[in-house]
Amino acid sequence: MVKTLQEINEKIKKGQAVIVTKEELLDLIEKQGIEKTAREVDVVTTATFGPMCSSSAYINTGHSRPKIKLGGGKATLNGVPVYTGFAAVDICIGATAMPEDDPRNKVHPGEFNYGGGHVIEELAAGKDVALEAYAYGTDCYPRRELKTWINIKDVNEAVLFNMRNAYQNYNVAVNLSNKTIYTYLGMLKPNLGNAYYCSAGQLSPLLNDPFYQTIGIGTKIFLGGGIGYVAWHGTQHNPSALRGENGVPKRPAGSLAVIGDLKQMSPKWLKGVSFTGYGASLMVGIGVPIPVLSEEILKHLAVKDSEIFAPVVDYSDAYPQGKSEILEEVNYAQLKSGKIKVKGKDVPASGLSSYKKALEIAGILKDWIKKGDFTLTEPVAKLPDVESGYKVKPLNERPIK
Amino acid sequence: MTTSKRIVLTFPKKNIDKPIVYHLIKDFNLIFNILKASINPAEEGIMVLELTGEESDIKKGLDFLKKEGVNVQPLSKDIVVNWEKCTHCGACVAVCPVGALYVKDKKTMEIGFDADKCIACELCVLPCPPRAIEVKF
Questions:
Q1: What is the predicted ipTM?
Q2: Can you tell me the distance from the alpha carbon of A183 to that of A107, in angstroms, rounded to the nearest whole number?
């Protein structure tokens, strides 16, 4: 059984396509098996909502009178420094940027209550944001100082560009030392006191398309409440990660770089967050529709939490020291049960990725496609796959003397 | 009738060496659960206790504490979850020592908060990424 994307899109436009969320798909497969479901179902929606630090927004503020050259100067949005290495009025704010006077970890663990992620959320919410800028002045851009409120409704472009999102699987963090540690995977109590995982598991987009057969550059997605596209493979994309027999990675593997119009997005799906002792970040909601082009693709889509494994890593020593050893492999059904066994001990586990919000996104994307005006796109280029041998490398440090 | 009461005790500097609290068990038939105990920078002792026993015994116990110079105040700290900010990520669940924050629905992983179980230890406040948990006095 083979379907083309064109056929599926024709059905979508006519309102005849059968679209289900990943959870609904699992119920269908249980009732009627893979073969029948593969013939009947046209699109499955997958989603994730979690902290994604490599996220940013770039903005063209529009020119002031007289004109100012922000490029090469200094600027902040609500006190958070923005990158000004572009043309006169193009700026870029990153999710983890912080005000210069934020104490960070001077008194450990720092709170990191406000950062770039919070500014991006406020912009998306339509709030006024304070732009303060200092420039060195040129003949064509003589102005040296600008202090103005800006609002997303007034600026030219406001684009969300996230260089790494939607990680295909991730580590499970624990702490083997005897002191509490604060990491990007949460506050970890000593001596295997607790564990954190961060993935939507069976709902996660790339875990449903493990070999990147349908998701590629140009794939149209739900991003932060609006429409977005996969722009490139994400940083640290690692198709060569260890995989199980079902082809699903058992270590952090692929990732996506995504782009979309911030003006269409909502603070409901873009949330500024703070990780105590670690830093500020942005939680991003992403939804990816997967077309059921063949029975093989449906077999990958049938993966359950109990069939997806993640590595338990010690974040007190092994992770910071770059040691590749892992303690255990656990699956997402075990993680979601709230308790996993590590080194024979019962360890309480909870997530940092919101399954509840991911479910909502899968439902919303399903509705968009059902309405008939969201058709699926065929990737214009593939993501580096297993055959390419593409893999993530550590830094080749060559100290400068 | 048996009841439970949560109190905050402040022991003045001169009293921190004297064993006082054990009297609550020995002389007043009360069971106590120490929720928090510390010495503050002013060298006063602070203890948060949950006392369980007959209502009349609790009253006698508290009177005894006051006579010993211990300041007694009911625990009126409240943990409040701002559901607007909460993203249901679950970060709080693994740190809550009493299970007041828990997964309400295993299918959707929706988070719930049982205020009756909460002991206001505040361990959940800082791990919450969207800062949705607030302490109210």
A1: 0.87
A2: 15
